[in-house]
Batch of 4 targets.
Target 1
Amino acid sequence: MKLFRPAVGSVPLSLAVSAWIILALNPVFWSKTGIAFGEHRTAMIAFSIGICALLTALCVSVSVKYLTKPLFILAIAGAAAASWFMTRFGVIIDADMVANAAQTTPAEAGHLMTPGFFRHMLLFAALPALAIAFVRIRHRSFSAKVKWNLAVIMPLLLLALAMAYWQYPAIASTMRNNRIVIKTLNPVLPAISVVKYAIREGRQMDIVAQPLDPDARPGALLSHAEKPVVTIIVAGETARAQDFSLGGYRRKTNPELEKRDVVYFRNTTSCGTATEVSIPCMFSLLGRADYSREAGLAQENLLDVLSHAGVDVAWWENNTGDKSVASRVALRNFSAENDPRYCVNSECRDQVLVDALGPWLDSVKGNATLVLHQLGSHGPAYYQRYSEEERLFRPDCRTEEFASCTSEEIVNAYDNTIVATDHMLAQIIDMLAARSDRLAASLIYMSDHGESLGEKGLYLHGMPYLFAPGEQTHVPFVMWVSESYSQIFGVTSACLAAEADADVSQDNLFHTVLGLMNVEAAHYRPELDVTADCRKQVMISSFVPDA
């Protein structure tokens, strides 16, 4: 018996698809539209009618024979996925977010592919897609189809223009002051972001990094140091400054660092809101104002300059990749090693870095800089980032499904990740201090970006910087120097503390590390080196003869 398949015209199917996308897959867009227009109801109605007309015209215009079903199914699937992440986490699907998704690891992706996500995709994508695949489409001849489609598209475009003309001043001013609204329109803006990402990736393929300060050399203090000088840079992940008790947070999330002689820089801002942007930016000379992915790839970075000066440089990876920062230095990937003592599915607690550090420190023979790229507070599986001993705040969210947890449980789980980072940094400090007789050591900890924990309905990170809340851009920055380091370079905790309340950013990292290592380089800027004034004092006392 032949299965009956209903037939439908391409235009009616286009109208049905556009209605589904408009009504079912754009809750965030309509919510933000309502908030943006507020009491301007007439302008909001005109704007809404215009957007619906444009989306419908777009659906009709792509209803081409042989392409109609694939394009509609792809549009619905993409819009459904984008809708889930925008609704649940408040993210915006821009080109940087597409890049994050493209470079995510299987373990990281697994945390986002929750039962709730699959239920959502089944209801909002799979079932409509099956319906589209099942029906037969009646197509007219090419000439008739062009005429018929234009007969539908042109009135829709005229309607959109009429709505814009009718309420242009109100619509223009509202959109100018609320640009985030249009960035949530499904599936148009996510599709544009995918295209932008693809174009950007194509341009980056042939970029070759140009040398930066190849004549960099050890400074006078480094040259005369009687023991190896070592700087450990801990590149943090998703730690926000608001939850560091060193900065005044009400909870004791830094119980161990508070007992060490560290300096905490309270007012530090990030270069971006996602690892893909912040990590390469913070190691770049460019700074946030001038940084772009292309510009960053076209120029060597901090690690290269240190290498030019004869410093032994290495990068230890325990996250989703070095983002091309460590392309020209020694790299060890702990996720790839997948040590069963610390790792599950190639996702490792940061203790794996600490346990490998002791043997490395004992093997150091010359000046060295080591970057530890930690997994830190990476969400949404916060509960997997800390041990039972570090589980100070309970009850904590024990799932990736935030909808199954209370706000308090989510915050508790996140704060436990900060406790784990606190323990990690304290261990490293103790290891460096114990070797003060043979190493002159310093430590820098700086998180790549922050995290939203439900404030303003936002979770996780990755908001476009223009719209990002302080929770995603205000990051912790910690420094520590050993006694032997202070004796050589004059940089002490007491001296650094004088700058603890200054406004600093990830732009300072490049110059501060060169300063800590006393590397002379043409592009070094002392005004961006938080250690410069302290080191200047010892240089004066060392090289100016007594009267």
Target 2
Amino acid sequence: MPKCINLVKVPFLSIILLLPLILFNCNSFEENPSNPNIIFILADDLGYGELGVYGQKIIQTPHIDELARNGMRFTQHYSGSPVCAPSRYILLTGLHPGHAHIRGNDEWEERGDVWNYYAAVADTALEGQRPIPDSTFTLGEMLQKSGYTTGLVGKWGLGAPGTVSTPNKQGFDYFYGYNCQRQAHNLYPKHLWENEQKIWLNNEIIPPGKILDSLTDPNDSKSYSVFEQYQYAPSLIHEKALNFIEKNKENQFFLYYATPLPHLPLQIPKKYRSKYRKIIGTELPYKGGKGYFPNQYPKATYAAMISYLDQQVGELVQKLKRLGLYENTLIIFTSDNGPTYDIGGVDPHYFNSAGPFHTGRGWGKGFIHEGGIRVPMIVTWPNQIEANMMTTHLSAFWDIFPTLAEISGYRNNQKYDGISFKPTLYGKKQPKHDYLYWEIPEYGGQQAVRKKHWKAIRKNLHKNNLNIALFDLSNDPREDNDISDQYPKKVAEMEAIMLEAHYDPIIDEFNLNILGDK
């Protein structure tokens, strides 16, 4: 960092001439001469192995791979949770799952028939998830205080319309997309939200879960036409993202791009999947059910959804370059949890979606095994982060808040569980976590701890199981061999961490009663 000039020894005229340079130098950070624009891209259910740069062989992701070549690729980064809502809450607050207000996907069902798609479209009182407290200090609010104009496009899932917990009331100057994650189970929805206003779209109301009847030919493309409508939400959301950048090109901005891709259902305009129909060849149609839509070419559609997300990332980068903003924009790309299991027509085994880890039900989304919580993360910032770098630094979603606080220059006594990984971005000595901790009340109730190369897992807590499985990830990244009987002292250490890290949840639905929750 250039040293500040000693004003006492400099003639007055020189001071006047040098004043702009003096002020610039004295207020600069060591690495970043000016606080960058920040774009945080959060994919939805994208697996560790579904990007080319992380080993994917079928799905093509050249633009995201280029991000990695121009920046840093993390190989030991973890989501906040193996499911959507808590992972997003943890991202926005810097709190780990044992301290989080939101710890599972809670649909706030005491309001009424929230799963009735027709009713929830018509009545905003049935839309959205349980709200977070008004007192929550979010990543958006922190960056607003740091001088940023903040925007969120995509999926929210952290508070229903009309509550204190909509994006505009939780730190975002602009919002466009899905308020409710249940509504996001249709990529041709009847409506989206722009700020606090419901925007009706030119789509019919088609409840997810419709099944092709026995008289419908599953090999006739006309059988699926009703599920391919007019206004595709990921395209509308992307357009608003580009508009937000254009509108704020003179401002310092933070864009949280929470894309609904490639989360089910399998839906994408036909033109995007033709390439993969040729690559993949003949496949069996998916006839629908389990809350998702039928699809004639499920594998080709899924691959196309990820490639379309990749195309959007490329367009985002080109937009920044055209506006002269790319050099001073920090881009982070990651996923909210691991890949979905064998449901809705998706075949994670075919695509090797979790990469080196087990995938499918019991291992991917919803579960605290590596396939459910180890996610890709790429960070790029031209001329600040060295290109084509890879790091094994152990990090998690609760590290994002303190990292962006440090990069944005935010200074306060804010408390969080995360540790800034800014030193890693600059190749400097990095403070490390003593451990990482997860819990989730869903899928039987689960806990997990990562400490160095050790991983401890508890499952089926709701069935009063307190047994701990222990894995050495340095030798067993797929978590095949439980070695708890060989290391009783390590098991006892991990059990103590599980006790220490877990605070009683405020919301009863997130209780793990066997742990003494009241």
Target 3
Amino acid sequence: MMTRAQAQTRARPDPHAIAAAATFQSFANCYIREIDAGCAGCMALDGREKCCLDWYLAAPRVHLRAVLSNDSQVGPKAFGPLFSRYPGESVWQPVDPLWAVQCLVQDLTEKTRADSRPSAGLELMLRTLQSCARIADLVQQTTARPLDNQPQGFLESEQSLTFGHWMHPTPKSLTGMSDWQSAVYAPEGGGAFPLTYFAAPRQRVRACSVAGDLDAILRDMAGNLLDTVPLGEDEMLLPMHPLQAEALLLQPQIQALMAAGGLRLLGSGGVRFTATSSVRTIASDDCDWMLKFSLPVKITNSLRLNRVHELEAGVVMAQLVDLLDLETRLPKLGFLRDPAYLTLDLPGSSESGFEVILRENPYRGDKGQGVISLAALTAPALPGRRQRLAALIERLAGEAGIEKAEAAHQWFDRYLDCAVTALVRLFDETGIALEAHQQNMLVDVSEGWSTKVIYRDSQGFYLSERHRATLTAALPELGKVADLFYPDAEIHRRFGYYLVVNQVFAVIHRMAAEGLADERCLLTRLRSHLMALSRSLRGSGLEFVRQLLDDSTITTKANLGVRLAGIDELEGGAGASLYREMPNPLHPANLKTVRLDDALAS
């Protein structure tokens, strides 16, 4: 007879199996979108015919087959068992997901050998395995916590992204941070830590604030640290993330500056912060400000550094949001402003590594209940847990006494009014487009229904060249900041990806995957919403929406290609190599239409 302990062990999910399956799913979906969509097939499995995708991988000379457990036009395909066979064989053999990933990497490396680095395949496989190992650790940690399926609040949602971005080959890759450090400094660990403070002569500090007295803000953060290590009258505080401080203290230029008395290390103390989903932006319920740092860590593709123009962009865009009174004009759209920055000036360097951005933190404690990122809202659930959006809609359906599909349709329509209508009107009326991907968009679901979206990230403003004269006349400082203005054609590509492919399609996919609504039906509702919206647009927004409706392709991100090429997407010059075209699910030729009256029924 099986003991209770044995039964519990058997029932407990296997973190490594979950991580391996998730790793294959994210990698294979990138491969499908960017490299090879595969050939449709079928096979008998457990007495039933199952739809499959087949690839012949030339480099390892093997046929690979993945059973489809869920198909999607807009989001990730989900896979069941995997099989392989060699040429000349007739029997398919079951294979491990990570072995299948290795075959895909080998094939991809061979296909792109002329355009990639000699070690690209090896590095890609290493990063993939690292990402898989992190997912396994996070699954193990998370499933050990008490079960709680409520949407919860801002900080909790920031720390809940176990699987990362579904369309990235190494979604949880974190290079430059050890396991023991990630337990404290990565969001999933939930660790809280004090900042490391330096002091520098005021004339060496470059700072700007349109949010009040920066000195007072920094002194409040440092708290009682200044009781033991007083600040000189002519000195200014420089708060640093502990990981960045450690890296800075190893630099000869910083060591020489400290030896000459031009910089002092005060130590650690004050408010304790915790990481948000971006890792390098930190927040605390005890502080009105989040801080965004440069970190000596590669997260997915990029070394996350604050550049001077990004510091300046945060301040001028905070001013522009207020000057144009955008939150009054568009009440369903809010902004988390980045209205202050500071850094240490070093001769001969555009950036010193001390760059820090201050961001508003209105969602402290209870004020953050029900305000969560769209990435967290649409993320897949761990075994034994209810997916967040599904739990929310099921609760709303029960409270209203309506069917789940009807509640899903109503929720989706209200969400479109916030995310799509507000952001497109912003672009149409002002020429301002936002890098509105899942992680950058917070959704207020404190009432259950989506009532508002809130945008964060000073790096993600795209201003239309067509509107340059009007915008710079209103705020001349805009003309002095690099990388703010773009041609409308480029904005259309990026805005289409971030708003529609990355964000809205994630909602559609999640609703369909959870059985809340039909994917085709939601796509038809989205197309109808865009058509109705287009009738009230007059400028840049109209061209953008017509392109979404009329073009046979839409832009997507080439995360696999970027990863293989070793491109840091936050550095300038990557340009078009970051993007690919995919069939546009909203185009009539690609949309597997349902009756419009069925799609719009609520």
Target 4
Amino acid sequence: MLRPSSDRLNYGNLLIPPPEFRADFALGTTYSLDLEALVGLPLALFLSEEMNKSLLNNPIVALEGLRRSAERFAILCEGGQIKVPQNQNAVFSLLEDSVFEVVLPNNCSFHPKIWLIRYQDERKQPFYRLLVLSRNLTFDRSWDMAVCMEGRLAEEAGYEAAAKQNMPLMAFLEYLRVRVKNRKKRDQISKMLEELKKVRFETNDPHYSDFSFHPLGIPGHTKQPDELFDTYKDLLIISPFLSKGMIERFKKLALSNSTCTLITRRTEIAKLSQELLEAFDVYAMKEMVVEGEEGLSGDDLNDEAYQSQDIHAKFYARSKYSQHSFFVGSANCSESAFSGNVEFMLQLRYRKHGFRIQHLLDDLFGKDEKDNPFEQIKELPEVETPDTTTADLLEKAIKQLCRTRPKASVTKEGQLYRVIIEFTEIPEDMDLMIASITGKQLVKLEPVTILPLLLLEQLSEFYQVTARKEETTVRRIIKIKTTGIPEERDKAVFRSIIRDRDTFMKYVAFLLSDNLLLSSLEQMDAERLVNGKRNVSWLQAPVLYENMLKTVARDPERLKEIERVIKLIDDQEIIPEDFNELYQIFRQAAKKVKR
């Protein structure tokens, strides 16, 4: 059930539509967000491709995924927790109408991690998939957990039961809906809400006898799950972050001769007392596992470093005689998680003869100690980890900027554009700089900040903020409501990528391909130099003619995608005249095939 060495889920595969269905609309939540990871989502949702690195690094693929998905997904995240992209790309601006920051009062955090996706078949019949995760939408390598549930419209006799079970989920969606500042996407969420009154979700496993949704921190749902905080005989807690008070609370709920196991990060153990360390069997990931992968560091975009991995799952398993419940989701074992933050948890009731919590531990730890990724900690660390670091203070300052609800405006000056940003309050005791999303030409952040002149394609509601104090630097992207961005900005972004005839023809080849990954790799091969000259043989007319002929015969509707791209670019210098003539011939042929 929980075997880290073998039972792995693929984030992208969880999003890909089932056979005979296509994604209609997807609503997601995350605490921290990586825009580069977000670009991969349309590949899975709307192009049915894995979030393959070769695809993600191809700007044409990213552009096409975002073009097709522009009105069909929304994601909400914590204000001030958007990561700065490592690779600067104008395409990120096309995400601004799909990303919505949430800022909460009293330093509480927006922390849920779910996806609710509506698919539909050719008859427009809906099919729902709900993903409840502990994972943020980033490239973090830490160990997380996810549960996938699927639902269809119930028979009319089951509407009442479906509505009752889905009520907490619907309350959570309504909370999200009002925070999505895009009318069309709010309408899509309203459509989901109406259908959820009739959708019956299934676990597809007979051992899970029942389930409950537990949103936390939203109006009408501030109460903690009763069963989680009931007395227990056996308990397993997996949580990367802790508060001492919450662990003490669970200790008091233990019945006599109970077993209590806690798996957490090594740095969090210093928060416990020796008494708690003796009351729980406490485990942390072995150092050799934590340091086992190489990657790019999180905030320093220039230096390569080892990116550690650690436990990041939030999981609670409790048993009381023959009653077993698992809680999976976003809530850490901390006071803030259950008393202030917005979180989302799924409770699964488990029934299997002879089941014990120890069976989960056997899966996690393995049969051989040398293969166990965890080690038991029996003594408190000698030096406590400080509660706050300079990086924490800088991150908090950026979040505070979001809470002041800044605004920006754009005016045209010649062929360039001036951006003026206004802040009502600026944190002190640190250096704060701001720039466009590119991060170039940083300027000091002031109550009224004027950015250097920008090109049209550089305009965006995403801005890069840099906070420095002493030797520590934190960079984040924040979204600022910006008026005056010209409507043709999106076309300018498009043209900045499809900037010449060769690139346009690559795009066409990509649109006509049956296998996007193969097409992407073929285009890379075509870029190789042959005798000092670029090899563009794949652009030759016979290949293009053959691909368009296949498209007319098999899927004439796909030609409409080429027409939409032609209208977006609308530039005779980029679109070859002979291609336009060829396209019109096949367009007429497609009409005859359709008849």
